[in-house]
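Suppose you are handed only these lines of text.
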Amino acid sequence: MPTAPDAAPAAAAAVEVHGLVKRYGGRAVVDHLDLTARAGAVTAVLGPNGAGKTTTIECCEGLRTPDDGTVRVLGLDPVADARTLRPRVGVMLQDGGLPNGARAGEVLRHVAAMYAAPRDVGELTERLGIDSFARTSVRRLSGGQRQRLALACAVVGRGQVVFLDEPSAGMDPQSRRAVWELIRELRADGVAVVLTTHLMDEAADLADHVHVVDHGQVIAAGTVSELLADGSPGTTTATCVRVEARPGLDVARLTAALEADTPPGHTPPGHPAPGHPPAEQARTPARETSGTPSEGRRWTVAEPEPGTYLAEGPVDPGSLATVATWLADAGSLARSVTTGGRTLEDVFLDLTGRHLR
Ligand SMILES: Nc1ncnc2c1ncn2[C@@H]1O[C@H](COP(=O)(O)OP(=O)(O)OP(=O)(O)O)[C@@H](O)[C@H]1O
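From them, the structure of the protein bound to adenosine-5'-triphosphate can be written out as follows.
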């Protein structure tokens, strides 16, 4: 994508939100929220339903007026400078916002015609598979087809900033891959991509920077590897054993067995030393565990959901044998026992809780 002469430099903040407040009926659904998104990066905004993600994004898009705080997109005010920003910003709304009566192909060509130097519509329709339904009216499109069309409309104008509200929601795996490829390409072209998603694997794969929002506030922010606590991107060191088995097994007993089998001072490479959890891990709210590193223990074991057990500690082959013995003693045949690091979903659930909203 050609870079416009007035494009933001690669490291500049393309979107800056400070102290954003948005109230409905006296209730602050966005409550002093700060967010930054840079050019040439994918910024993911994660959060439970109703956390305030869409409201925040829509304030950045100039569709809602903040009650307090400042929002700047490419240094401009999205409401006061809406006309200047329109050709420089791409928007994919959560509900599509497409005209129902028009055919898909016509909608995309119409949107493309509003920009000075649009992308090649033919190339875009082919890569997002829009060809096959280009003559279908928007009202007859499936959910995933509508999403693909909305995404095409958001990127066709070569905006310097692109806001994508749940871009791959309802898409089949093939479409999702195509969307991810397109988003990576936008980043490589220097676009600031801001997206919301409920798909943790999507965020983990795509995002350079993540903001976790809850109750209208950012409760954690950082790169994915920072949020994953071990702070070392690409590490292959296992720090967690995950077991799927019968609910209600004795986690205290497993903790004791793992502690007994782990020699004092045993710290596999890449794993935090006992009593010294990484900074991000220290920030994570306490979970229901049977031991914490601060008590001098090396293992924390929890059953965060019935039948799912997470044992975090210095995993080695002996730890797996201990877990297998624990299961055998309980007479439980596990559906799965896996090792690895914590996932972004683990971190998200730790931060936002496991109850429904
Ligand atoms: N126009 C409105 N009038 C009143 N309340 C609103 C309005 N728009 C949003 N809200 C409320 O604001 C809160 C935040 O909504 P928002 O759509 O920003 O959440 P979200 O994080 O995007 O959720 P989801 O993941 O479900 O899309 C919700 O409680 C919602 O009901």
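What can we learn from it? The longest strand covers residues 13-24. The CA atoms of residues 110 and 153 lie 9 Å apart.
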